[in-house]
Amino acid sequence: MDTHEIARIVENQRAFFNTNATRDIPFRVRQLKALKKALADHEKEIYEALRLDLGKSKFETYLGEIALVVKEIDHSCAKLHSWAKPKRVGTPMVHFPAWSYIYSEPLGVVLIIGTWNYPIQLTLAPLVAAMSAGNCAILKPSRLAPNTAHLMAEMLGNSFDPGLVTVVEGGGDTAQALLEHRFDHIFFTGGTTVGKQIAMAAARNLTPVTLELGGKSPCIVDRDVNLDVAARRITWGKFFNAGQSCVAPDYVLVDKTIKKDLLESIKACITRFFGENPQTSPDYARIVNSRHFERLAGLLAEGDTIIGGKLDPNDNYIAPTVIDNVLMEHKVMESEIFGPILPVVEYEDLSQAIAIVNSRPKPLSLYLFSDNRETQERILRQTTSGGGSVNDTVVHLSTQSLPFGGVGDSGMGRYHGKSGFDTFSNKKSILKRPFWLDVKLRYPPYGKRLPLMKVIMRLFG
């Protein structure tokens, strides 16, 4: 798509926004329900598109893509009137008579740049937040999931006025062309390197950004755990979507005394989940493309592969794999893995695990498995992450009442539920006063009023 066409789309959306249609709450609810209907009407096509793009099963597509967006829609529809209502807040007595309010108003035209690993969820969940707040949105889905991107363009094109929602397909050149234009907010999901480029492009127009990035999310396993349950939850969280999840456990830090038992339990879980040959399992996804396959295959050169390790480049298949005897300087520990490879690092004392976590960029998620309350509080108090779970993995992102996002290299900004509504809203602060009382003390000439004003400000300011 050329720059002139993109300029026309942006101008069309600004014209639509200026009609003030999106400021109407019932209008927003109707559009959200239209999105929900579109998802229901195209459910079979979504399953097929995700099968073609990522080899996803229907179960993982429904749970990781469709259900989360539908939950966001339902939650927003139920809460929208409350979120959008002006909030009255306190007013200093010095301003009497006066009343203070915070108005949530839409920002305008926003750009949402999605990613390929959850192309439906990570494009449409931000759209739900943007529409709830009353914005018009241009969506740029990832070209690495082409079937899903094309389906979204068709699905949303048939459901919405292009002035309200438009999908722009294309690659990096298209994204760059979009970033040449001024938007009122940019929402990006992807890697840290591209996130920095997005932030620099947005800075040219002083455009606020939300960056949902990633990082190496640690999973700490204390000796005080139910090993079978911990292994199940770690295995599921790591190998869901073949490990291509920004919140997947990236590596395990395990107490030395239980490492052997944990590894045996994880191996048993992999077999239970995907059979003796996961390549034949209908529930195990594939790597998105050959470039990512080669990158991941290169990570297996160091450490000891004790589970899995099978590769099939013709199928972009990498078996659920666990690597032991991993060192911090190994390549697999340098950056986010984003695939079905789980390095395991042992520790003797919890302080060692905390030091490893804190020596690295702040992760998007942190997982701790421990029944010890003191250990739980110590980890939560002495480490920093965007979010996480205690005695589980991944599921915290599906809770609408929990703001989701990163910190530091793992991102900035939050969404889901009201946090998404707030992200795409301008919080306009308004003080209202009547005419019937107008104390002259603040008006010049001030004369000798300063001592009296100090008293008033101290008592009523």
What is the strand tally? 18
Q: Give the CATH superfamily of the largest domain.
A: Aldehyde Dehydrogenase, Chain A, domain 1
Give the class from helix and strand content and strand pairing: alpha/beta
Return the CATH class of the largest domain: Alpha Beta
Q: What is the architecture of the largest domain at the second tier of CATH?
A: 3-Layer(aba) Sandwich
Q: Describe the biggest sheet?
A: 7 strands, mixed
In short:
Helix 4 (58-84) runs parallel beside helix 5 (121-132) and helix 5 crosses helix 14. This protein has helices at 3-17, 25-41, 43-54, 58-84, 121-132, 146-157, 172-179, 192-203, 227-239, 259-274, 290-297, 350-358, 373-382, 417-423, 450-460, and strands at 87-89, 99-106, 109-113, 136-140, 165-167, 185-189, 209-212, 218-221, 251-255, 304-307, 311-312, 317-318, 321-324, 341-347, 365-369, 387-390, 411-412, 425-432.
Give a structural overview:
By secondary structure, the protein is an alpha/beta fold. It has 2 domains: 3-213 and 411-426, Aldehyde Dehydrogenase, Chain A, domain 1, CATH 3.40.605; 218-405, 3-Layer(aba) Sandwich (Aldehyde Dehydrogenase, Chain A, domain 2), CATH 3.40.309.10. The protein has 15 helices and 18 strands. The protein has helices at 3-17, 25-41, 43-54, 58-84, 121-132, 146-157, 172-179, 192-203, 227-239, 259-274, 290-297, 350-358, 373-382, 417-423, 450-460, and strands at residues 87-89, 99-106, 109-113, 136-140, 165-167, 185-189, 209-212, 218-221, 251-255, 304-307, 311-312, 317-318, 321-324, 341-347, 365-369, 387-390, 411-412, 425-432. The protein has a 7-stranded mixed β-sheet with strand order 10-13-14-9-8-15-16. A 6-stranded mixed β-sheet has the order 5-4-3-6-7-17, sandwiched between helices. Strands 1-2-18 form a 3-stranded antiparallel β-sheet. Helix 3 (43-54) packs antiparallel against helix 6 (146-157). The N and C termini lie far apart (56 Å).
